[in-house]
Predict the structure.
Amino acid sequence: MNAPRQGKPSLDKPGDFKILSDNRSAGHDYHLMSRYEAGIVLTGTEVKSAKDGKIQLKESFAEVQDNEMWLLNAHISEYSHGNIMNHAPVRKRKLLLHRSEIDKLRAETREKGLTIVPTKLYLKGGRIKIEIATAKGKKFHDKREATKAKEMQAEARAAIGRRARQ
């Protein structure tokens, strides 16, 4: 029997995953709706850089072109030990989804005027996956209300903490 390796967490189980990059500004700038998990086509040096956490999803988005889903404006830094065959940091990257999911996303973006934004990039079962979400842009007053609500929750938690200590 093979014993699990000591030191590193196991990513062999289907439920285990490690977040490589998180797009927190997506939740601030958009109302996130339905979410999808997609595979992503990467080159070898891109995989190594992504596993090092050298990826930026902040201004990236996805769109359907020629019945295929593409990730645009995602920045994956060049691999430090790469040679002249290193990848370009910003390029179109293909996302792997089922045909029915692509058709549904195309319909939502065309009919409802939604955007597709990546929310996280993670390692799951030895594969790099990306979570994308359909999103509707927030107005300035929506962002202010969200900030106010967060502050009120933080104050409530602080008050409960003070009461618990007394």
Q: What stands out?
A: The longest strand covers residues 30-40. The chain has a mean pLDDT of 80. Residues 17-138 form a domain with the Small Protein B; Chain: A; fold (CATH 2.40.280.10).
